[in-house]
Amino acid sequence: MVEPLKKNGLIERKGPVVLVIMDGVGFGKYKEGDAVASAVTKNLDKFYETCPWTKLKAHGTAVGLPSDADMGNSEVGHNAMGCGRVFSQGAKLVAQSIEEGKMFQGETWTKLVKNVKDNNSTLHFIGLLSDGNVHSHINNLKAMVVEAKKEGVKKVRVHALLDGRDVGEMSALDYFDPFAEFLAELSADGTFDAKIASGGGRMVITMDRYNANWDMVKKGWETHVLGEGRQFASAHGAIETLRKETGAIDQDLPPFVVAENGKPVGTIEDGDSVILFNFRGDRALEITKAFEAKELTEFDRKRVPVVEYAGMMEYDGDLHVPHQYLVSPPAIDRTLAEYLCTSGVKQFSISETQKFGHVTYFFNGNKSGKFDENLEEYVEVPSDIVPFEERPWMKCADITDRVIKEIEGGKWDFIKLNYPNGDMVGHTGVYEAVVCSMEAMDLQLGRLKSAIEKAGGVMIITADHGNADDMYEHGKDGSVKTKANGDPKAKTSHSLNPVPCIIYDPEYKGEYSKALNEGLGISSIPATCMNFLGYDAPSDYDKSVINLN
């Protein structure tokens, strides 16, 4: 149990402190492709003109990733904004465990390999095949396949999901082709048999989150486990054919099964071992449930093979999901929400389905549930199950409706909300839709401003990482890369750009300097929120963006 926070005796506001997370909204490096700058954002522009603001780091080592070449993401961003310190995250922990050999000495790896060898069965890997390093990394997979062969495993099958979201939108063959060659080389001596067995776009099969669309998981189960679906002789052929037929980018390609003589090369059977090699939790929980649940109500699995299943990491530390995992996740403690509960601060959290878990579970240090049922309320606004480019405004107005109601009700000391638009629409690569999403969100910022001014509260506007600010692929010289028809190549991944931290404080009485601290990361958000709630932050928290006078 953490100790209650100490009052700073300086800042007191009659209204709530409202933390607004503009998911995926940063400061673009290039004019071309910056949908945030291109959008008409009257309210956001006014905040920059009249309010104290600064830029915060939201990628790389500032959020616990291996290097500053690693883009931030919503998971690590919300962890940082929720715990006030930087913890080594999944990507870094997994890479270290493999490099140092600890993973392969661990009980889970040993058990899964032994199971395959004892049963003369197959070791399966399921996950995202790219080097995006947000959900997975292809180098981790390659290291595990090499080790499996070294330890005497005879047969490996890879169920590979196309990325096109954390990497280039049409980059799948840059990963699949060399990886297929890699497997063929390992299999050339005849003692080892490794193949790609199935695949599909990450936004079509397997990787659903927050129970938004279980049909994705059903399709993944049918493809990876049962071997049901359209058959192709190779993953390369499947990708090329499906691209031509559908016109879809990688993340949206339909599922496929690799088959020889009409028979799938890699169905999952009794006695096999299965590793989900994604390390990020949100899009791993549902497929994990499909493997582990004795009874599943979300869809008919038809056949449930008895396997040894493990995740790359523990995806939910409270529910202990999965039962077996290869690398322990970061142990995040003493989060902002826990400190505020211990101090008696009443808190309200809201987003739509796509980011609800981020503003609760990830924000609370990968913890399910509340710290105090009497002091907290969580509200999920159901997301529409439609392509985001078709509804770029998403549910930002609905979220705002509820937040304004809660501000006017006067019950809460601290309110936090997430607008998913910049990230979810940004991932589609549809520039016009992203501009629309920014303008829709900006309208809501204006509505919040009026409510906060009336209530005498404070609004802190920030983001977890960039995305909408960098929608075109650029060359090393900064020029926009183009397609054969001359159109810009869309960039669907996050950016390496900084994000804003804006302080809207209509009741300002000189309690702090309007010259905000610079060079900080988004892990400074918790101390900042504590200060505005009238408290000193814990001594080991990253410092606030404000200096109290």
Explain what this protein looks like in three dimensions:
α11 (285-292) links the parallel β9 (273-276) and β10. The relative contact order is 0.21. Strands 3, 4, 5, 6, 7, 8, 9, 10 and 11 form a nine-stranded mixed beta sheet that branches. Strands 2-16-15-1-14-12-13 form a seven-stranded mixed beta sheet, with helices on both faces. It is of the alpha/beta class. Helix content is 33%, strand content 15%. The chain has 17 helices and 16 strands.
Task: Give structural attributes.
16 strands, alpha/beta, 549 residues
User: Taking Cα atoms only, what radius of gyration do you get, to the nearest Å?
Assistant: 24 Å
Helix tally equals 17
Number of strands: 16
Q: What is the rounded distance between the termini?
A: 31 Å
Uncertain segments are none
Let me know the average pLDDT: 96
Percent helix among the residues? 25-40%
Structure classification: alpha/beta
Overall spatial form = globular
Tell me the fraction of residues in β-strands, as a range.
Answer: 15-25%
Reported for the largest beta sheet, the result is: 9 strands, mixed
